[in-house]
Structure formats: C-alpha cells, structure tokens
Write a sequence for this structure.
C-alpha cells in the first residue's frame, strides 16, 4: 500500500486532489462504492437473513438516491445491525486536518480551527487519516438528550484558556453530530428525542445552521442521517415533528422472519452453541419447535402486538435449552448433550421475560402462556413433519389405559427404554425421519416431540403429576394405580 500523504502539500499532489475524490460528499461516496459492489455482485449486508427480497432492496435504493432514511420496526428486527454495516460502503480512510474535532476536509474546512491552521501552515499543514470504522456515530435517543449533547455548547473553560470571547467559534464544544461530519450519524428510537432537539436536527439537515447559546454558527455538515423507530411512535399522532419527518427521504418498514426456516437460520447464526468441551447437539426438529415458539407468540392475542416478540426470544431459548442439556449430560455422565423438548420446557425464563402481556395474559400468567406456546409449537412441528402417519398405535395404547412419566434429567438409554414400552412410538420417530434407530439421544427427543404433539391435538393428555395419559383420564383405582404403564419419575 503506498504511503499516504502526511501534509497538505503532499495531499495536493495526490489523487485526493482530483475528482472524483476531491469534494465528494459522504452520500456520494456511499453511492459510488455501493454501485461498484453491486456491479461486482458482492454481498451487501452479510449476516442479515430474511430481508433479501424486502428490506435490503429498499435500503439499497435509498442509499443510491442519497436519502437520509429511517428504519421502522419492532424490537429484535436487526435495525441496529443494519445501520452498523453501512460503514462497508465508505472508503477505507479519508484525509482530515490533523487535530480537527469535526473531521475537516483539508480542501474545504468548515471549522475556524482548521481554517486558521491552514492559514498559518499552508502546505505544511499536518494531515491525519480517519478510518471508516471511526466515521460512524450512534446515539440512543432518550428524553434527557439535549441540544448540547447532539450539536454542542459554549465551553467557558476554552474561552478562558484561549482568551476568546464567548461568541467566538473557538469556544464551542462540538456535540455528536458535528463530530460525525463526513460520516454517518445514527439515532436509535428517534421519537424519544424532545421536540427542541428534533428542531436542531432538521435545521442541520436543511440549512446547516446552528445556534449555540444565541450565537449563530454556520456548520455546513456533510453527514448521512439514519434513524430507527417503533412504528407505534412514528405516526401523525406520535412524537415526530412534521418538518423533521418531511426531510427524511426514505421510510423503510422492517419485519420479523416470515418463514420458520428463515427464523431458524437467524437463530442458528446468532445463538451461542459452539461452546467447546463436551459435544452438544440440537436436532433440527427441536430447533423448529424453538423457532415456532416465537411464531406462535407473535400471533397470540394475549401478547402485546405493539411491543412485538423479539428474535432474541428463540436465540435465548436455544441457548438456555442447550445449557440444560449440557448440565444433564454432566450429571448423568453422557458423552454428548442433545437438546430435547423437555429442555425447552426447562427454559421458561428465556420466554417469560420477553413477553409483554395484555390484560388477559396477565390474568393467566406468563409461565402458563409460555408452556402453552411450547406445546402449540411442538404440535405444529409434528404436523409439518409427520401428520397422522404411524401414530394410531401410540394413541390406542394410551386410550387403553397406558400411562408414561419420565423425568427430564434421565439418561438417554433409560428414557428410550421407557418410550419403547409405548407400541409404535420409537418406530414412528424412525419412520418419520426424525432420528436414526441407532441414535438414542435423538430418538428420545423425537419421542418427546411426538407425545407433545399428540397432547396438543388432544389425542392424549399431558399432566405434571401423571405424565402422559389417555385423553380423558379415568378415576384412579382404590390401589392407587392408573392402568398399565411405566413411571420412571
């Protein structure tokens, strides 16, 4: 890599002194680099799954149009991750006047400091190089954010030390927005900003003028503004002032994964599953159950739609279930930890903390709803994987008085012996391609899925006290029995 110019004179004799590099705005820079990546067929947003045909084309068009934009979506829809990947479309580094707080372009400085520095040193003015990673500034909007935080304020200490009047631009302490000059400035949860701060933002976007403590300062900032917000807040009745909303060029609506397979891919990508040490495995049908818990929750009327159900729910649920399997493997000295449906039930804390319940849901309780979501998810998964094929002997055995209760912390071989007493259960798991006959841990997980699915269909009953029993259990006999069956609890 050639040596980068270190003085203004060297810079004037480099390609940076000629078009298209000289005088190129940050939005032109993003557009130009994006066009090159599109022409090469490169992946624009690596790791963003499920938006290929919806959000990413809209976002690409907004960047090509040089728009400020806003991503509207509920929590856990990868809005922040998308914003942080925008730096991929910036140059590797850009020249700035060394010591500048606002990343002054050496050929078009906007701060008094840079202008005076160039006036004193001329071609000997020192040049620094700002890497792309430092050209992204992000701020979470909260009601206590002030104009001083975002734009700046007068610094009396600077005035005293430098002998300047308070009206002198050199006494100004620059806020986050001026420090993002020639870069990207992102604000999360835009509606939470006060109206006064929003006025400062749209004035910068339109005019480049700022007033600090009543002193007008001209700051023609070169910046791409990107925002995120919850759709519920971003309405005509919401907290966005109309002039600011009018100046945002593109409004892009994000969404949760629309297909279970896409959700599973996201969860598998984001969850911490490669832990080292003892081997661990999650069968694909258990992964599907975990993902369907989130899908079921998003359609449940007892859960607040305005809050949404974050994609972090299945991610946390998978991590928790895997940890339960890991713990069981250590306790039972099994060589491999394989996640079962019972491990998903053991991970209720990863569900209840992520559900915002409506009044009806509050009456029923988060834990009861979470258990119902798991059972429904298991039923949907069984329907997709097997339907009714080969399950009649299983239902018939329970209807004839059979009962089965197995603790979640039992070894796989012992659990499999218990499931094998139910005619056709293990055979159905094999025939349905849920597990191989010689894979005992996966067969246990598959057998649990089948029983949970049958319980969801109300063909059998799942009881915390009795385990799996017939759909309409009979009264116990005087000797305390419950028909034929096996209790490993």
């Amino acid at each position: 890599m050639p040596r980068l110019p270190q003085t203004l004179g060297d810079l004037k004799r480099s390609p940076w002194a000629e078009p298209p590099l000289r005088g190129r705005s940050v939005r032109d820079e993003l557009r130009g680099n994006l066009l090159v990546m599109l022409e090469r067929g490169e992946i624009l947003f690596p790791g963003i799954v499920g938006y290929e045909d919806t959000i990413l084309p809209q976002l690409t068009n907004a960047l090509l149009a040089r728009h400020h934009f806003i991503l509207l979506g509920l929590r856990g829809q990868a809005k922040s991750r998308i914003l942080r990947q925008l730096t991929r479309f910036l140059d590797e580094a850009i020249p700035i006047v060394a010591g500048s707080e606002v990343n002054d372009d050496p050929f078009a400085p906007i701060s008094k400091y840079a202008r005076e520095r160039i006036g004193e040193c001329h071609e000997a003015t020192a040049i620094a190089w700002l890497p792309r990673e430092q050209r992204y500034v992000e701020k979470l909007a909260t009601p206590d954010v002030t104009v001083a935080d975002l734009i700046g304020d007068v610094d009396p200490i600077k005035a005293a030390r430098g002998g300047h009047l308070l009206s002198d631009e050199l006494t100004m302490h620059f806020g986050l927005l001026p420090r993002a000059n020639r870069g990207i400035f992102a604000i999360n949860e835009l509606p939470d900003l006060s109206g006064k701060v929003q006025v400062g933002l749209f004035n910068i976007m339109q005019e480049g003028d700022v007033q600090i403590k009543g002193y007008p300062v001209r700051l023609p900032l070169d910046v791409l503004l990107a925002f995120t917000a919850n759709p519920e807040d971003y309405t005509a009745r919401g907290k966005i002032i109309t002039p600011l909303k009018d100046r945002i060029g593109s409004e892009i609506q994000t969404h949760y994964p629309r297909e279970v397979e896409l959700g599973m891919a996201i969860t598998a990508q984001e969850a911490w599953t490669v832990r080292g040490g003892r081997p661990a495995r999650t069968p694909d049908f258990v992964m599907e159950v975990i993902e369907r818990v989130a899908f079921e929750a998003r359609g449940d009327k007892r859960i607040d739609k305005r809050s949404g159900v974050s994609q972090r729910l299945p991610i946390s649920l998978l991590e928790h279930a895997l940890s339960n399997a890991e713990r069981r493997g250590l306790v039972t000295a099994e060589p491999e930890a394989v996640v079962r449906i019972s491990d998903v039930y053991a991970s209720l804390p990863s569900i209840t903390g992520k559900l915002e319940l409506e009044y009806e849901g509050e009456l029923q309780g988060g834990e009861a709803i979470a258990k119902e979501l798991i059972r429904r998810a298991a039923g949907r998964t069984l329907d997709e994987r097997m339907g009714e094929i080969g399950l009649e002997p299983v239902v018939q055995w329970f209807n004839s008085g059979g009962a089965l209760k197995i603790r979640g912390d039992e070894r796989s071989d012992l659990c499999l012996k218990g499931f094998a007493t139910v005619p056709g259960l293990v055979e159905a798991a094999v025939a349905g391609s849920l597990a191989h006959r010689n894979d005992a841990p996966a067969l246990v997980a598959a057998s649990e899925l089948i029983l949970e699915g049958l319980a969801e269909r109300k063909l059998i009953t799942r009881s915390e006290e009795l385990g799996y029993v017939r759909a309409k259990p009979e009264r116990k006999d005087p000797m305390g029995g419950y028909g034929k069956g096996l209790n490993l609890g």
About this structure: The first helix runs from residue 8 to 12. The mean pLDDT is 88. The radius of gyration is 30 Å.
